[in-house]
Design a protein that fits this description.
Order of helices and strands: HEHHE
Largest sheet: 2 strands, antiparallel
Strand content: 5-15%
Strand order of the largest sheet: 1-2
Number of strands: 2
Number of helices: 3
Number of domains: 2
Shape: flat
């Protein structure tokens, strides 16, 4: 139990440090990423549900891509204006 609590504290600390260090190195965190991707992921999920009903599990495995989150879009290189 203590090790889990210690791990959570370490992850929170590293996250806070990374959040403040990223702008220093020219990166920014896209805070609206999950709100923007929610609609696209829901559309993929509804299409997969239709495929599952129509063609069964094998058809859904072939056509469905459940990878909704793209980590490359979560942290972007910021553009500096001069």
């Amino acid at each position: 139990m203590f090790s889990i609590l210690k791990l959570i504290i370490w992850l929170a600390g590293v996250s806070v440090i990374a959040y403040f260090a990223l702008p220093y190195f020219g990166y920014e965190v896209n805070m609206n990423y999950f709100a923007e991707r929610k609609v696209a992921c829901q559309e993929k999920l509804s299409q997969c549900q239709k495929d599952l009903v129509q063609s069964g599990i094998q058809g859904a495995k072939e056509k469905c891509n459940f990878q909704c989150v793209d980590p490359k879009l979560l942290i972007n290189k910021s553009e500096k204006t001069q």
